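> example.struct
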């Protein structure tokens, strides 16, 4: 349950922020049917933040359910990286360098989410 909640938070926030940005400022995201580099960097930052929040939620729920948070965070990170690479069309749109960057940011976001959960645990639980 903690893993599913973290995944839904991560993907939901990514979708919400991405759709909001693209709807509000479409020329920032796409030019001549290609993703713009400024948008890709912004997406990478949004991805990092959303992964961090999703992992924090998963880790907190895991703690409540008496499951160790680190394995939950690791499984969530592996799941997110798997989905990134599984979707071939999006991977081609982003390019190899951006895919690798997002994979690394997923690991960094998982670590940041664990730290955030540790800090929030004292306030919430």
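> example.seq
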């Amino acid at each position: 349950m903690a893993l599913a909640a973290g995944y839904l938070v991560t993907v939901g926030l990514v979708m919400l922020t991405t759709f909001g940005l693209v709807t509000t400022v479409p020329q920032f995201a796409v030019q001549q049917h290609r993703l713009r580099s400024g948008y890709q960097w912004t997406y990478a930052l949004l991805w990092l933040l959303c992964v961090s929040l999703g992992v924090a939620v998963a880790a907190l729920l895991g703690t409540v359910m008496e499951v160790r948070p680190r394995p939950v965070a690791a499984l969530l990170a592996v799941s997110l990286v798997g989905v990134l690479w599984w979707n071939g069309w999006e991977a081609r749109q982003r390019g190899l360098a951006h895919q690798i960057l997002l994979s690394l940011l997923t690991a960094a976001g998982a670590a940041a989410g664990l730290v955030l959960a540790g800090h929030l645990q004292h306030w919430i639980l």
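> remarks
Residues 18 and 24 are 10 Å apart (CA to CA).
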